[in-house]
Amino acid sequence: MYVRNAWYVAGWASEFGDALKRVTVLEEHLVMYRVDADTVVALEDRCPHRLMPLSQGKRIGNDIQCGYHGMTFNCEGTCVRVPGQDNVPSSAYVTKYPVRQKNNIVFVWMGESDKADEALIFDMPEFNAPTYHVHQGDALHLQANYLNVAENLVDPAHVSFVHPTTLGNAASENVPVHVDTQGEVLVAWRWIRDSEPVGFFQKFGGFSGNVDRWHYYYLHLPSIAVIDFGSAAVEQQLAEEEREQGVRIFALHFLTPVNKHYTIDRWMHIRNAALNDEQASEQMDAMFRIAFDEDKAILEAIEQQEQLPQKRKPIRLAIDKGPTVYRRRIRDLAELEATEDLGEPVRPTFVHHE
Ligand code: FES
Ligand SMILES: [Fe+2]
User: Ligand nearest 151 Cα, by number?
Assistant: First the structure.
């Protein structure tokens, strides 16, 4: 179940250079390459002649020459040369995908190109705020369906059990999770008041006594998650809207559904502490790696389990509000796209929470 009319992350800007690179998104193979500092091109990675992947061809200027019989395509996907004949058949083209680079991240639009609206590209003001430090992390490759991965990113309840040394501890086990929708964004959150700081904030917050700790999981449909988490000394009596005054970290996850059983999670963070301290960035990366490997182990194990015949349906618990709302909204969006394809525009029925 894929939502096609959306900007998906094809990679960090640094992943694209002069070389032709195959990128797979929603089971479609793209050939991508950089034409200038701000512009990356994405074309269908399939020659219309004998289906040779163009990513195995040769770049000539900004054109690609197919590695089999030399048909050549420009960066609009138009065929500009057919060796052995003068006329270019009208079906000799490859599809071009809209691409934008923003905040050093390359986004590709996988739906109908006339619906590609730049205003829909994910952004947040902290990318350019002087009080924050932006650090690109790494890519986690998961043998798991993106819905399960996204579900994990709108599920604060697993943190106490899966990440006991970094992001969670026992104090949060029984704290209820709230869920709401803010426009197109789903948010699940909870505060754990007056408890021991978790490993992450013992290391980076410099807290000696108890803290108030928060986790806000924002899911920008279909597959971008922002986890706003942080801590403040109990004496600060921090209100929900004053999180800025605590030690605050945004962990960003850009999920790229490669196929039904494979998802790439590119992760990074933006923080209001240890500004311009690259050693702190690396130490945080090391802690995130521990936590995300813990998620990977869980998600790959349940993916395996899902492949088996199921005798009973999985049960849903009170803590599952975020994941439940998420899946319904994805289903609604996917159904909406399918019905639009049939020429029957239907309004989605969103807001299922509470
Ligand atoms: S397969 Fe590309 S030119 Fe023949
Ligand atoms: Fe997790």
Answer: 2
Domain 126-306 has CATH 3.55.40.20: no
Both tokens assigned to 127: 């990318």
Ligand 1 binding pocket includes 94 (Cβ within 6 Å): no
Tell how many helices (H) and how many strands (E) occur in the chain: 5, 18
Band (pLDDT 50/70/90 cuts) for residue 276 is confident
Backbone φ and ψ for 345, nearest 5 degrees, come out as: -60, 130
For residue range 163-199, list pLDDT tens digits in order: 887 777 777 777 778 889 887 799 998 898 999 888 8
For ligand 1, is residue 79 a contact (CB within 6 Å)?
A: no
Instruction: Specify whether the CB–CB gap between 6 and 111 falls below 8 A.
Output: yes
Atom of ligand 1 nearest to the CA of 57: 2
Q: Homologous superfamily of 7-119 in CATH?
A: Rieske [2Fe-2S] iron-sulphur domain (2.102.10.10)
Span 69-85, pLDDT tens digits: 999 999 999 999 999 99
The two tokens of residue 251 are 């962990």
- Report pTM: 0.93
pLDDT band at 354 (very low <50, low <70, confident <90, very high): very low
Which ligand lies nearest the alpha carbon of 142?
A: 2
Residue with CA at minimum distance from ligand 1 atom 1? 50
Q: Which residues pair with 140 in a beta bridge?
A: 265
Q: Give dist(CA 33, CA 73) in Å, integer.
A: 13
DSSP sequence for 183-200: TTEEEEEEEEEEEPPPHH
Give the number of other CB atoms < 10 A from CB of residue 205. 20
340 CA from centroid of ligand 1 (Å): 34
